[in-house]
Write a structure and sequence with these properties.
Elements lengths: L4 E3 L5 E2 L1 H14 L5 E8 L5 E8 L7 E5 L2 E5 L1 H7 L3 E7 L2 E7 L5 E2 L5 E3 L1
Parallel strand pairs: 1-5, 2-7, 3-6
Antiparallel strand pairs: 3-4, 4-10, 5-6, 7-8, 9-10
Subunit structure: Homodimer.
Cofactor: iron-sulfur cluster
Keywords: Iron, Iron-sulfur, Metal-binding
Length: 117
């Protein structure tokens, strides 16, 4: 059994804009089992990088938040760096993308996709 905790309220904010975009992508893929997974990896110009993927499977220790019937999931290692963050979706002159606003980041790179603690 996979120990997971998906809640309606969590230490991470899943914006309406991000949830709407995930719901739209799930509908396009015709796969209601998909969830948006956000994770942290080592690397990038500031030390850590954010990653996003769609995942059908929950993994041991995953946590997340349910918004408008879609789920954002995070592995336990990444969760500690993302507490207090907001996952949002933006469409602007730089393109369409998911972003993380992380109050734990001491520095970020110019593109906003990497950070240091």
């Amino acid at each position: 059994m996979v120990a997971t905790e998906i809640q309606d309220e969590a230490d991470i904010v899943f914006s309406d804009s991000a949830a709407n975009r995930v719901a739209q992508l799930i509908k396009e893929e015709k796969n209601p089992s998909l969830r948006l997974r956000v994770y942290i990896t080592g690397g990038g110009c500031s030390g850590f990088s954010y990653g996003f993927t769609f995942d059908e499977n929950l993994k041991e220790g995953d946590s997340g938040v349910n918004k408008q019937g879609v789920e954002l999931v995070i592995d336990p290692m990444s969760y500690q760096y993302l507490m207090g963050s907001t996952v949002d979706y933006l469409e602007d002159l730089q393109g369409a993308r998911f972003i993380v606003s992380n109050p734990n980041a001491k520095t970020t790179c110019g593109c906003g996709s990497s950070f240091s603690i």
